Amino acid sequence: MNSLQQLARSYVTIRLLAFVLCLSLPGLGLATEGKIDLNTASATQLEQLPGIGKEIAQRIISYRKDMGPFKSVEELTKVKGIGKAKLTKVKEHLTIGIATQSTSAK
User: Fold this and answer.
1) Which residues belong to any copy of the Helix-hairpin-helix DNA-binding motif class domain (predicted)?
2) What is the pTM assigned to this prediction?
């Protein structure tokens, strides 16, 4: 195998390992089934949700910072600018992380 083939193989291996690592880190806001973890998502990730812009994304983060982690997705309606209609649009895209669920169950 020549050095170019070795380099290509190493590149593919590194990219694959990076992908697996990203999927396994809950702090990145990534969750199972392609959902966003409401308690770890960044403003940029929250802005990807339907009807959520910069201002509401920042309100979500501020609420989370002031009040602690969300215990349920439905608690999102406590954030100014998010009513039942907007919750219905975003609910299917959100989850609450496993670590948060286990600590809130105590």
Assistant:
1) 44-63, 74-93
2) 0.63
Task: Please tell me what DSSP assigns to residue 50.
Answer: T
Q: What ranges in the chain are assigned the alpha helix state H?
A: 3-24, 43-46, 54-67, 84-90, 98-104
38 contacts 76 by C-beta, under 8 angstroms: yes
Higher pLDDT, 104 or 63: 63
CA distance 37 to 30: 6
> What are the tens digits of pLDDT across the range 38-47?
999 999 999 9
User: Strand, helix or coil at 30?
Assistant: strand
Compute CA distances 62 → 37, 79, 80, 98, whole Å. Answer: 15, 9, 11, 21
For residue 39, what are the CA distances in angstroms to 6, 78, 79, 86, 87? 41, 14, 14, 18, 16
Instruction: For residue 22, give both structure tokens.
Output: 């990203």
